[in-house]
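Its record is set out here:
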Amino acid sequence: MTTAYVNCAAGVAGDMLLGALVDAGADREAVAEALGGLGVGGYALSFERVQRAGIAATWANVVTEQHGSHPHRPVRAVLELLTAAELDDAVRSSAARVFIALAEAEGAVHGIDPADVELHEVGAVDAIVDVVGVAAALQSLGIGRIVASPIAVGHGSVSAAHGLLPNPPPAVARLLASRQVPVVGVETGMELSTPTGVAVLVALAERFGAVPSMSVQAVGYGAGSADTAGRPNVVQVLVGTETESATAPRPGRSAVELAANVDDVTGEVLAHTIAALVGAGAHDAWATPIVMKKGRPAHTVHALADPADLDRLAAVLIAETGSLGLRASVVERWPQRRAEVTVDVDGHAVRVKLADGRAKPEHDDAAAAASALGRPLRDVLREAETRALGE
């Protein structure tokens, strides 16, 4: 398991994260290829070596043709852009999670449905480049787990599209609250942490706190645009392999289990609902048979979700099942550390999840390979497992 620890002692922004990951060794060509798959023009991205209060760092400088103008983009348009783009599924999924988190925060701030949110600065081309670039850089480094420090914030007020706003800005504050992220106050009126940077960590980091026990293999520094005196304006990233056992006790992570009892849907609808919940971001979804009043056979449909995703997944569950109500309970989950590799089975790529000596091939990949090769599925699964464990 390759882990990235993100030190946000000076704040965090999308360009700082991208610069830090590239500084730590992420493949610039892989980042450029992912951005090329967006089909978006009107920008130039360069990685420049700079100094920030005496520390050498990489600045991911995105220059757009809008000359300071930040067009409004509905979040649905950004998600449609990601869906249509030629991106690896993992990169697409990570970027989409970030923009969904942004939309939910902006929706809560303005009192509107997240689907109706129009993103301002964070919806501009430079922010889309930052988010997709970070997702591609994480994949390039093979990062399987992200841990982040408490996030630094300033005070006073900052200027934004809506005028003067409190510092930290309302969207940032809402994002921090959605995951109960620890913060550190800094005596400055600067906007140290931007919605884009905070959204990346809220959407993708497993936890916030101290550095995990790890063998550090690479260090990267990503520069902010300002060079402040006496305080390096950088994000530090440590990349390495965790040294504690994968089975050692560690803090659980809170999740919400949604459930709805239904007795008037078909098996096909149940299957579609489970797929829709997973597609909407549920950690897992399943159905269990039950007996309701008057002896009626029925099912309970469950979804395991992050608290930040609760409203969206509840809406999916109600819409797909037609249930008149649902219930929720807070649970603790201990996801096992895992990584994903891709193996070649007679010329066909099969993704395989690895966890503590166990390999689990992606069923759809293996089924497609078996069909194309005219081989039994069980043979393809066995070969993919053997290859993955041997790498």
Observations:
- The longest strand covers residues 43-52.
- Residues 245-249 have pLDDT under 50 and may be disordered.
- The longest helix spans residues 89-110.
- The radius of gyration is 22 Å.
